[in-house]
Amino acid sequence: WNNNNYLAYLVTCSGVEGPVTTSIGYTPAPDATGSTVSAIGCMKLSRQGTHMASVWTDPVVSTPQVFQSLMIVVLLDFNAMTGTFSNLRSDAVGPGTDILKGYGVEWSPSGRFLYVNDNGLVGGMASSSVYQYDVQDPDPMSTRTLVGGGSPAHGSMQLAPNGTIYIARLNGAQYLAGITDPDVAGSGCGYVNAAVTLGGVPST
Q1: CA distances from 121 to 71, 98, 118, 135, 152 (A)
Q2: How much is the mean pLDDT over the chain?
Q3: DSSP calls for 73-141
Q4: Is the pLDDT at 77 greater than 90, yes or no?
Q5: What is the pLDDT of residues 26-68, one digit of tens each?
Q6: Where in the chain are the domains?
Q7: Closest C-alpha among 105, 112, 104, 108 to residue 163
């Protein structure tokens, strides 16, 4: 926060070594009103240990009366031997006239597909969009594909042992969304709006 440093620690049976610091990319910081909304978001390393992805919020207009923002998706290569990050690629999502806050991040089991979601207000309605990126493409950020979303808004994403990515739902929803086949391109990934019910317990 308030810098662009990525810290990598080597964890072994002997203890923890590091950190190795890589300074690269954007610097999330308080906006003109002092709001720390840019701190909202997640980051996650692929299971293969070769890529790191993160999402965060970029205020476009921030005044006491008006707030409009973009979701920023960042993709980095990671070298597990040196602990360094490189090859930054990014994508700014949204028209800049709504409130879009970067929120969830998850990888498909193979590490080929990256999934992210926003959490915001579109046209005054609380809603989210779930996007897929193909990291094997020479220009992965150009492959952004809308694969799901809607109301209520979506939260954090997590790959489960059964291979499904589950997504928290906000605003008192008593179920999780899911992506049942995350290693399939496009709509074939199997986004399900209500994949698991929680027996009357709110998702968050």
Answers
A1: 12, 6, 10, 28, 11
A2: 90
A3: EEEEEEETTTTEEEEEEEEEES-SSSEEEEEEEEE-TTSSEEEEEEEEEETTEEEEEEEEEETTSSSGG
A4: yes
A5: 888 777 777 777 778 899 999 999 999 999 888 777 776 666 7
A6: 5-197
A7: 108
